Amino acid sequence: MSALMVNDSLDFNALKELLGLTDGNLASHLKALEQQKVVVVSKQFIGRKPSTTYKATEHGKALFRQHLAALEELINNQ
Q1: Using CA atoms, how far apart are residues 71 and 31, in angstroms rounded to an integer?
Q2: Residue 18: pLDDT above 90?
Q3: What distance in Å separates the CA atoms of residue 37 and residue 45, rounded to the nearest whole number?
Q4: How confident is the model at residue 78, as a pLDDT?
Q5: Cα gap 8→57, rounded to integer Å
Q6: Strand order of the sheet with strand 39-46?
Q7: Backbone torsions φ then ψ of 20, nearest 5 degrees
Q8: Of 25, 38, 45, 63, which is least surrounded by CB within 10 A?
Q9: Cα gap 69→49, rounded to integer Å
């Protein structure tokens, strides 16, 4: 999510390379995020090659900000 918070959108291969995950691992995580409406998926063809792009939804961004706030609170209370 942090990668999608600082980028408007990222394609599958860019996320895979950035995160160092396998295709299957990344796909399962992205599918779960899509089902919870945290990310939105856009599929298109570039030339003859399929391209899948992911973008954080406003709901996903709000959830991520809440997560960061909870982490900060945890750190500050120690």
Answers
A1: 25
A2: yes
A3: 23
A4: 79
A5: 10
A6: 10-11, 49-56, 39-46
A7: 65, 40
A8: 45
A9: 40
Q: Are 10 and 4 in contact (CB under 8 A)?
A: yes
**In this structure, what token pair is assigned to residue 27?**
């796909």
Query: 64 and 56 in contact (C-beta within 8 Å)?
Result: yes
Distance CA 61, CA 42 (A): 17
Distance CA 49, CA 45 (A): 5
Q: What is the pTM of this model?
A: 0.88
Question: Which residues, including other chains, have CB under 8 Å from residue 59's CB and lie 6 or more apart?
Answer: 37, 38
